């Protein structure tokens, strides 16, 4: 299985206005590839603020729902199925007949 890799900047949770520059990252920000994020294990986290989220299940190469407790856990957690699919699932249009093809992987990784 080959996963599309995209870079993103992950900062403090709840700070949607935070923008990160790849050359000058603030101390609270770190870069993680989508592949690394998608391959982390699913974790329900702690707390009891139960909410529906999505994670990428590497064994089946698909996004699945789970109940997130609201704190802790891994970064393999997405607020929608579409977000999970856009970062983690293989582009099925380029797969062909059961063979895996590389799609949209930047040359600078």
UniProtKB/TrEMBL annotation:
Q: What GO MF annotations does this protein's record show?
A: serine-type endopeptidase inhibitor activity
The cross-references to InterPro entries, in alphabetical order and at most eight, read: Kunitz_BPTI, Kunitz_BPTI_sf, Prtase_inh_Kunz-CS, TFPI/VKTCI-like
Highest taxon above the source species: Eukaryota
- Give GO cellular component annotations, separated by semicolons: extracellular space
Q: Which Gene3D superfamilies match?
A: Pancreatic trypsin inhibitor Kunitz domain
The BPTI/Kunitz inhibitor domain, residue ranges: 38-88
Alphabetized UniProt keyword annotations? Disulfide bond
Its name, as the record gives it, is BPTI/Kunitz inhibitor domain-containing protein
């Amino acid at each position: 299985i080959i996963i599309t890799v995209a870079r993103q900047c992950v900062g403090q949770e709840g700070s949607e206005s935070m923008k990160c520059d790849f050359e000058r990252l603030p101390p609270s920000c770190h870069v993680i590839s989508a592949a690394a994020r998608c391959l982390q294990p699913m974790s329900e986290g702690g707390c009891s603020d139960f909410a529906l989220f999505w994670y990428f299940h590497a064994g089946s190469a698909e996004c699945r729902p789970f109940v997130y407790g609201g704190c802790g856990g891994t970064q393999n957690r997405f607020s929608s199925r579409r977000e999970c699919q856009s970062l983690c699932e293989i582009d099925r249009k380029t797969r062909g007949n059961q063979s895996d093809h590389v799609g949209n992987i930047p040359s600078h990784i």
